Amino acid sequence: MPLMEHIRELRNRLLKALLGLAVGVAIGWFLFRQSWNFITAPYCDTAIQGLTGCGKDGHPLIVTGVFDPFFVRLKVAFVVGLVLSCPVWLYQLWAFIAPGLYKREKRWTYAFVGSAVPLFGLGAFFAYLAMARGLHFLLGLTPAGVKPFITIDTYFGYAIAMLLIFGVAFELPLVIVILNLAGVLSHSFVRKWRRVMIFLVFVFAGAAVPSPDPFSMLMLAVPAVFLVELAEVFVWVNDRRRARRASVYEGLAQNEVSSLGLEDAVDAEPR
After folding, report:
1. How far apart are CA 90 and CA 98, in angstroms?
2. What are 129-170's pLDDT values in tens digits?
3. pLDDT tens, 9-50?
4. 3-class secondary structure for the chain?
5. Beta partners for residue 62, in sequence order
6. pLDDT of 98-126, one tens digit each?
7. Mutual angle of helices 194-208 and 214-244, in 10-degree steps
8. Which candidate, 158, 19, 153, places its Cα nearest to that of 73?
9. Own/partner pairs for 64-67, CB < 8 Å, 24+ apart?
10. Per-residue pLDDT, 271
11. How large is the C-alpha radius of gyration of the chain?
12. Do 131 and 162 touch, CB atoms closer than 8 A?
């Protein structure tokens, strides 16, 4: 298509994605109470120590401004809407880039999207488990005689940061697999730099997790390292499978044309 047609197509896709997001935000606004109870559950779990709310001896979350309740409700609605509308904006993104991909690249994209969402959800699950322990560690450092009055905005920022950091970190093995499928990363390279990658995972976990307690760091690093090991196994198996296949250039003279994927060539024709 001409450049202006591409721009119009991008505009239409963005408008549809934003419309889906707006509907998701509207639903998230009405589901605020259920969403907020879910988000604050880790905070309430530390009420046994009398450090936070949800208990008669705890200290509830507070607001310090007139508009804070409105903006917190809006932030929660936006996050919920982003999650609920992800099928819509992911489809719009796919519909925009798919016509320019080969059939093999489309299969890789299906695998990427189909694996990215569960991996992000798994990371968010581990983040949810680590949040209560992290809060207990942080609030446990409060000096005697000092009451920890935590603002809603501060706690919400902590919760979202934990969910995003864990979710993104769990995508690392998928990046390794995709690079191997694309022929960029080999098993020999992964095996050579394996210890360095594991060390960098622990460095990232220690630097990225908002809570400085070792439990939260290990909750991120140990599952991520396990997934990296699984990715290495996949890379090893895929490289062995490639090595058993005959090369498409085998037996060809220097000036002879090879018969490469006519199917992909046809699929690559402009629409």
Report:
1. 12
2. 888 777 877 777 777 777 777 888 888 888 888 888 888 888
3. 888 889 998 999 999 999 999 999 898 888 888 887 765 455
4. CCHHHHHHHHHHHHHHHHHHHHHHHHHHHHCHHHHHHHHHHHHHHHHHHCCCCCCCCCCCCECCCCCHHHHHHHHHHHHHHHHHCHHHHHHHHHHHHHHHCCHHHHHHHHHHHHHHHHHHHHHHHHHHHHHHHHHHHHHCCCCCCCCCCCEHHHHHHHHHHHHHHHHHHCCHHHHHHHHHHCCCCCHHHHHHCHHHHHHHHHHHHHHHCCCCCHHHHHHHHHHHHHHHHHHHHHHHHHHHHHHHCCCCCCCCCCCCCCCCCHHHHHHCCCC
5. 151
6. 776 667 666 777 777 778 778 888 888 88
7. 150
8. 153
9. 64/151
10. 47
11. 24
12. yes
- Give the total residue count for the chain: 271
pTM as predicted: 0.71
Q: Which two tokens stand for residue 105?
A: 């690249």
What residues are paired with 151 via a beta bridge? Answer: 62
